[in-house]
Amino acid sequence: MATGLGACDYTTREAAIVAPVDPPGGDPVQEPTDVKYYPSDEPVRLGLEHYNRGNYGIAQRYFKDAVEKAPKDVTAWVGLAASYDRIRRFDLADQAYAQAIRLGGETIQILNDQGYSYMLRGNLSGARKKFEKAYSLDPGNPVIANNLELLNGSRKFIERPPNNQP
User: Fold this and answer.
1) Over the stretch 14-31, which tens digit does the pLDDT of each residue have?
2) Which one of 56, 78, 129, 146 has the largest count of C-beta atoms within 10 Å of its C-beta?
3) What is the pTM of this model?
């Protein structure tokens, strides 16, 4: 039996990988070996779970896996951007937000999340612009109202009188 396997040009696993995805006859069933087929959104679910637990680095890995598997998933891109914000990789967060906007437009959630991202960076005027734009689209949203209140509190905290300079 060993000699029979040794004579094969490739193994059974390799044969499954190089097998045609669309077999003759138009079989509508997707095979697990099809690169475009993913049986679940497990990476997004795990990313959200870890993000909500405060494990932002682990969440970032799951969201990155999710966007690699489903590059048109806006939820995965927003989760990836938010995770990057929390681990202070703002350069990568900006790229992820840009991709989410390309795919789904400037949604209220994205505007709010970008505002929060700018607030984390200390860019309070940029944060205010994003929060106000989100608030104009949904004035009854308590999360946006809370973030504007938080921003106003931050601004008051860091402003110093001119005579208090070094």
Assistant:
1) 434 444 444 445 544 545
2) 78
3) 0.70
